[in-house]
Write a structure and sequence with these properties.
Blueprint: H1 3-15, H2 23-30, H3 34-45, H4 49-67, H5 72-78, H6 84-95, H7 99-104
Length: 105
């Protein structure tokens, strides 16, 4: 994948962390079919587009937990999770601790 297309896609992901993940939308941004986009994205980053998106969300959530006084629920909402339990489950899987434990450490 060309560097400028990859940058365009990762910038779009970062700008829309609270939006629902859409492979079709990202493939359109890259001007590629979904199949080619997924294959080239994984080759370029080592992660599938959805895995990369989750990592971006978790990085933003970690930042918000440490740098703001937003509640865990509000942090989850800010990074696109409408269910606090789903946010906590994904956060724990990706980070190794719950959002509350992360904030407390």
């Amino acid at each position: 994948m060309q560097v400028y297309k990859l940058r365009k896609v990762t910038d779009a992901m970062s700008a829309h962390l609270s939006a629902e993940f859409s492979l079709a939308t990202l493939a359109r941004v890259a001007e590629l079919s979904e199949y080619h986009f997924s294959r080239l994205f994984k080759r370029a980053t080592g992660l599938s587009p959805s895995q990369y998106f989750i990592r971006l969300r978790m990085a933003r959530a970690r930042h918000l937990l440490l740098e703001t006084r937003l509640s865990v629920i509000d942090v989850g909402l800010a990074v696109g999770y409408s269910s606090p339990s789903h946010f906590s489950q994904i956060f724990r899987r990706e980070v190794g601790v719950t959002p509350s434990e992360f904030r407390g450490s």
